[in-house]
Amino acid sequence: MADSPRTGVLTDRYAEVTRVLNRVLVLNLLVAVVKMALGYYTGAVSILSDGFHSLTDSASNVVALIGVSIARRPPDADHPYGHRKYETMASLGILVFLVVVLVEVLSAAADRFVNGGTPKVFPEGIGVMTATLIVNLFVVSYEMRAGKRLNSEVLRADAKHTRSDVLTTGAVLGALLGVWWGYPLLDPMAALLVAGFIGHACWSIAQEASRVLAEQIVLPEGEVRVVVQSVEGVIGCEKIRTRGSADYAFLDLHLWLDGDMPLKTAHAASHVVKDRLMTKFPQLADVVIHIEPPPAQRG
């Protein structure tokens, strides 16, 4: 595996994922600094909450970069199935950051409801928030496209994180306009809406990560069966099992061949089956096939 063409493909993939994360990290840091500075200056809890949310975008980028740097390592003696799940673990790191931000946002909103206060709102501040919204829209689109193209959980998770930031910035802009028109209560109410968006992102990331860690089926059994039975000499198959992630999956199955077939011929047939499966499903890292006669020929 370490020297296989598949490993080379994975290395290229991880290099591309790293490039995407580095570009996004720079943009997220810029947006976070601008929002937090504006939030402290105006005293708007909604802007400050949105700034902390954006700051976790940057932190999650760093976590993702660490996870990807480990996940790209080839299989070794201690990790015969590779290190791919470290990418999934990195997406869980993003989830942890989101939960921390969720608590901070709820705390800030509760404090404003209890103690009151009216933030300073001015046209330039609204313009700055609008500019950060445009940057975030670009980041989400760029990262989500890259995540789908590269089948990267960590890029998709990070894009969902930033997408929640787009929604929160939109809510904050609405609240700022409301405060400008004389409704200061809209500021903490927008912070609560921010918390709702963050909570939804948490749930979405947790679902995707759990599918990998719980080893949910990756490939449809019916599609696998069609490929297997397209090989001449194959009678059928059973016990089809797949696990892993969308871009790095493992498959094992029991292959039915004529019990009187010579071992060398049966072995060759199993390799044809494996080659066709890995051609049909390029995300397969390995296929393990157990050869046996069909039930009717078993003693």
Detailed description of the structure:
This protein has 299 residues and is mainly α. It is built from eight helices and three strands. Strand 1 and strand 2 (249-257) form a beta hairpin. The longest helix has 38 residues, at 5-42. 41% of the residues are buried.
Task: Write a compact overview of the structure shown.
This protein is mainly α and 299 residues long. It has helices at 5-42, 45-71, 85-115, 123-150, 153-180, 186-213, 221-228, 263-280; strands at residues 234-244, 249-257, 284-292. It contains eight helices and three strands.
Average pLDDT value?
81
What is the number of beta strands? 3
> SSE string, helix = H, strand = E?
HHHHHHHEEHE
Using only C-alpha atoms, the radius of gyration works out to 25 Å
Instruction: Count the DSSP helices.
Output: 8
Oligomer: single chain
**Percentage of residues in DSSP E strands:** 5-15%
Strand order of the largest sheet: 1-2-3
Distance between the termini: 37 Å
Which stretches are low in confidence, meaning pLDDT under 50 for 5 or more residues running?
none
Indicate the topology.
Blueprint: H1 5-42, H2 45-71, H3 85-115, H4 123-150, H5 153-180, H6 186-213, H7 221-228, E1 234-244, E2 249-257, H8 263-280, E3 284-292
